[in-house]
């Protein structure tokens, strides 16, 4: 069959530069003994270099044309092509439930969702590498105090060390995207437990960054209201939050807080509702 035509609705931008593809493939060497799962292989420009690693390689591809192309041009990959939506895939069914490296030239329209899924399976994915929009890569790698520091920054950095490796320009793709791209690597840090209620931690991070220009005192109130409602439904007295909200931390905006400060904030809010 001929070349696959990129599909806009799938967010496909096929990399044409083999040197860059090889460089992306080499990012998985941070975990040299683990099998590899590639998301969105397209026509296999990255896949060919991953197969040279002499490791188990599986690919997940939703586009039926790309699947047909891969089967024709990579016969050794036949049994390891998963024609499915990565976001709906149970990752524990892969590699007999053992850890693996996640990589890919990720579809730009779902890159953030891919990393949220990575967090759901963080104990299976000690290393995640690949190419995404430069803007998203900068957000993931951003430090507190930066304008790009946000939800992805905090939630990923809580569990992973993030490295912004290099920038990739538009002209090496078909079709060229409207933005620059970047290659990143995320490697699990030593954190096994955040030391707080993880569900509440995520709620606080997402709620506060939804109105990032406001101080924490103002933008956390909707979440406290939801928690108060739940508290009342369960028949418990609603806490008086006046002492909590007097803490100087609530004078800050969310982008000023480190991961550790968000953990401490989560514990303070959690203490309000201790029975």
Can you offer a commentary on this structure?
By secondary structure, this protein is an alpha/beta fold. It has two domains: 8-188, 3-Layer(aba) Sandwich (Rossmann fold), CATH 3.40.50; 198-272, Helicase, Ruva Protein, domain 3 (Orthogonal Bundle). Helix content is 35%, strand content 15%. It contains eleven helices and nine strands. The chain has helices spanning 18-26, 47-51, 64-73, 111-120, 134-141, 151-157, 198-209, 216-219, 221-233, 242-245, 259-272; strands at 14-15, 36-39, 57-60, 81-82, 101-103, 127-133, 160-168, 173-174, 181-188. The chain has a seven-stranded mixed beta sheet with strand order 4-3-2-5-6-9-7.
CATH class value of the largest domain = Alpha Beta
- Mean pLDDT across the residues is 93
Round the Cα radius of gyration to an integer and report it.
Answer: 21 Å
What's the domain count?
2
CATH topology of the largest domain: Rossmann fold
Give the overall shape, derived from the CA principal axes.
elongated
Low-pLDDT runs of 5+ residues are: none
Distance between the termini: 65 Å
Structural class: alpha/beta
Per CATH, which architecture of the largest domain?
A: 3-Layer(aba) Sandwich
Count helical runs.
11
The total of beta strands comes to 9
- In helices, the fraction of residues equals 25-40%
CATH superfamily of the largest domain: Vaccinia Virus protein VP39
Strand count, sense and barrel status of the largest sheet are: 7 strands, mixed
Percent strand equals 5-15%
Order of strands across the main sheet: 4-3-2-5-6-9-7
> N-to-C SSE series?
EHEHEHEEHEHHEEEHHHHH
